[in-house]
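From the pipeline queue, job 12 of 40. The input is one protein chain; the requested action is below.

Action: predict structure.
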Amino acid sequence: MVEKIPFFIGEEGKRLFGIIQKPEGEGKFPLVIFSHGFTGSHLEPHFIFRRAADALCENGIVSVRFDFFGSGNSDGEFEEMTLDTELADLERIYNYVLSLPYVAKGRIGFLGFSMGGVITAMFSGKHPEIPCAVCLWAPAILNKEIFVFQREKMNKDFDKRGLLDIGGLYISEKFYKSVVQENSYEYLKRYMGPVRIIHGTSDEAVPFSHSEMVAMERGYELITIEGAGHTFNNRSEVDQLIKSTTDFFVSWLK
């Protein structure tokens, strides 16, 4: 039986929401921290984060899924988010899980989807001694190129408040500047542990070619899902994604 434990951490107005999924039994378990994508949440499309957490739990691995500040059930507004706030959020979550008595502190992995891959890469480079394994789903790891291209395609500018409407949500000029000035790939290069990238060949949001280039340059393992889009939109693609993710973390954390 899977135990699901919702939690909030932080002071009022700055709280982060998350869910722990823990296998039954006593002792210390390895753990994976999930980081969601741009405008995403601790569930993600088709509940793929929850489904991946279920699969890990079945294999004796604890998971923590959370909402970044300004997203999902966490406090804050989306336009208050920057790369720095999201990196600080992931650091807060990591420090929180260290307090859990059933977590094997030397066996912690990290999973990042899309923009969450940027934050996971930055965390891994800033703290290269912490992750035992890093898995990235369709990571926006060449973040500057992606966001410059998307803004040019929108052909919009920031308003007098320094905000830009993207599909019903505002992003701030401060966020945009942070995402085109930082290079998450350069951060990730400092991490010398195992990295698996899983990416669909028909991704129109984050080009598959970016993952190909990064994997070739660094020798990372690249798992290709033929025909899959950015959010892995059919059952076969999701099954491949989750199996590959689970196999990777079982091999490095168990």
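Job complete. The domain at 3-142+183-253 is CATH 3.40.50.1820 (Rossmann fold).
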